[in-house]
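Re: Re: token formats

Sure, here are both.
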Amino acid sequence: MAIAQALLVIFFLCTAFCDDHGKDAFVYTSSDDFAIEVAETNHFVMFYAPWCGHCKRLAPTWNELAKIYNVEGTDCKIAKVDCTEQTALCGEYGVSSYPTLKFFEMEEEPERYKGKRDLDALKEFVEEKLTQGGEAEDKPEEKPAEKEPEPEAIKGPVVDLTAETFTKHVATGNHFVKFFAPWCGHCKRLAPTWEDLGAAFKDDDSVSIAKVDCTSDRSVCDQFEVRGYPTLLWIKDGQKVEKYQGGRTLEDLKQYGVKMSQAKMENAESTEGKVPDVLRDFEGGVIDLDAETFEEKTANGLFFIKFFAPWCGHCKRLAPIWDELGKKMADKEVSIAKVDCTKHNDLCKKFEVRGYPTLIMVKNGVKMDDYRGGRDINSLSIFAEKFLEIVKEDGAEDDTHDEL
């Protein structure tokens, strides 16, 4: 019995670690096993993800290559690593797109293969690596192999982003991005709807629909503090605007995309022939404050400020009343203003805005009080005038002290 068990153990060890005699590519399921084996013999490794289309197309060719080299007497093992299972191992070797092919030569840094992916080109590469051990011969300089485009950078209705392509892609404009994991059930259910959303906005230059696989591009997901899957973020000019919390039907997502991209379009409209919002206080309107001008414009005086989002229903209902308040208070020493939180999220965070609209009284750039009363013109004007009286009283006290 003991002999039979010993033979069984030897069989499994040979299956795992001995040369695969003409078998398919060896699959590593342990970082420790990988480290031991690549130190013993040359390896040509495909780092892949099971769902990756490019990987699926390469798989039969890779197995054909394995049948050539995974035999006795060769100095190279053809192997592969599933990056959805071995995330730490793939991260250690800087894998950021699929498939990534690397040649591991003993006592040398691994070399990434960037050539063509047909069987002849792969064989030629392996043979070149295996014959480099002798003295170098004088050879004419060869042209570098043609580089294939990174698979994850290819654009479709939904843009596949990686750590290498993300920053450049989202640097300008509006982007609705899905951060996901391929094993996540909710992500799988959302996937076809997300593709339909991409198709719906395919010809719309105001927004791109994109996705990031957090199992292969963890650094991007960490940057945006992704803690669950799927996470849907609206990103503008490289900065997170907000996390989408609505329904996940195609219609819900389309409406959100339209609202957020329209906010961008409104911001981009030409102001030719119009009085800029920041000057409307001179004509009895509402001052449109932004992150760049806020401190300077609110440094002196009293400001009653509406923090809002263009898509918010309560904000839309309040808008004409707020404009009326601006006109009513035009001859008073209190300015009526507004801040669009979809454009100036950091500014809204500074004032701890948690919902829309939020109405705050600010004096000399500093928050005095939140308004929680009625949203009719009478209630709002009474609140503003009350603080105006407080400011005047404070001013009178300051004058008295100055005289002393």
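Second one below.
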Amino acid sequence: MGSQGETHAALRRLAPIELYSSVRHSMGLYLSVTVTCRYTAPSPGQRIDAALLYPALARVVSAQPMLRVGIRGQDTNEAAYCHVKAMDLARHASFKTLDACACETMDQYNQQIALLQGWHHSQTWPNLDDIPPWCIVVVQPGTATGQDELSTVQDILFSFHHALLDGISGKLFHESLLRELNHQLHQEAANATSSRHLQLPDAPKLPEAQDHVITFTNSTSYLIRTLWNELGPSMLHASKPIPWHSKAIDFAMAYVTLTKAVDVPGPVVTKLLQACRDHHTTITGLFHALTLASLAARLPADKAPSFAATTPIGLRPFLGPSADPELKPLLRVLVTSYNHEFPPALVAQLRASSNADETTWRIAQRVKDELKARMATMPNDDINGLMKYNSDWFGFFKKKDGQPRPDSWEVSNIGVFPPSPDPGFAVSRVYFTNGAMVTGSPLALGLGSVAGGPLSVSISWQKDVVEQDLVDGLAGDLAQFVTRFGETGRFAAG
């Protein structure tokens, strides 16, 4: 590693979307994204240990420039990626065996993973100009357990600074690591100590900034409307209902992320997917609708007359002709988002509906149609095309302290983990979470699934911003909805 205080050469300035996350980290408003995959061993007793991990991880890191850069000047609006010339992978990878008494069953083990994931979301990245801000933890249940289902599993938690990568990149990282682990299984035993030390004298060629390879174009009307909403006098703005957002933005609250999982078994996922096709929607649209159904039932109409939500959208399909073909597969940040509104009339209709399933499916279709229409016009009139005009992200965020949050929840779907073509380890679960968003949604749902296998729905939130009872109720509702659907084909009872 570079010595403390050593100045590393700047590679390029952070793009606006990357600076957006760098500033949030510097201000303690959002610290990391985490994607944890469950690695199932080919036979009992087979384990991912240092000798297997380090050479495989070294090849992944060597192939991915964004995993071997630091961030210089993170406390400024001019932050830049910098060249880290040497890495000790032991500073990025660790091994953890959980207390056997705390994970005697798979459900208990999953709860421990959720706790660990929340803890990682609550940690800042140190020495950013010297140490690339990401880490993995290889986790396994304690050896005292006699449960067969736990005897062949380990989870690898991958946590990273959002200025380096997006959620889909987190899944792609695991795809690469799985491939390299299975390759390493058939090689001669490696020296773990030598494999963990990487010498990187040549500066990496970084993937291009998002706004350099996505052709954002903004109409005059969109530009004027957006700037007016952001900068115009509030007294001249049209009155607009504020959606339920739990509590106002409060920078003074301790930054502690909590996470909770709802696991949907593979056969139920198959049934849900078919039902989504039959109702012309998607799993993303469905979980927006189910979340709305739960919160509308649990929150009184006078406190929650309306809701709003966000869906992140991956921009990889929209890379323009200027994008370097060799850099297209690299892990990076390529993301925007779309906002959905659930106005008072729609929420009141849901609350009063005598056919909750029909209304839920109609809302799920509405979300899907909105996303389809947005995708058809991408990348025109997108907020990312205006981010370059903001020269002070610190000032931008400081103004939000004390203001209402913009929406009620987020549903982010990183998609399906494909089956491995290679013999050896396989991934059997994907648990994807966002850190608590101090200036964003009070609730974040992360969706990740395995081909032909389970779907894991995560819920993450900032401690004390959302009441534990409400989160437990939402998780219980989602679990009950999908379980009942698997048994009866309906979400609602009766």
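The first helix runs from residue 16 to 27. The longest strand covers residues 409-417.
- S.
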